[in-house]
Design brief:
The strands form two sheets. A five-stranded antiparallel beta sheet has the order 1-2-5-4-3. It has 97 residues and is mostly beta strands. It has two domains: 1-54; 55-97, no CATH class. Residues 80-97 have low confidence and may be disordered. The longest helix has 5 residues, at 50-54. The chain is built from one helix and eight strands; from the N terminus they run βββββαβββ.
Amino acid sequence: MKLTYDPRYNLAYLRLHEKTAQVDTIRVSDELNVDVAPDGTVYGIELLNANEQLRAEDDGKFVVVNEAAGQRSEIALAGRDSAAAVVREKPDKPYGA
């Protein structure tokens, strides 16, 4: 799985699988497209107007939580004028605690 963000076009793409087959793009809304193969496999999710969607929660950070291990990773998203991002990992409280 891979998340890419292009501030030039304000697009983010969450790739769940490498495209190995023809996919259809389903427009879910003005800000969301989903790439789906004929067998129903979701290959990716495209966020249009991504900076607004990605910064709406969690203080502008992309957060990945491994609930089973109680681990949390944060990526501070770059500002519109910056191409850099800061990656920081920190343990979260144990799941369910």
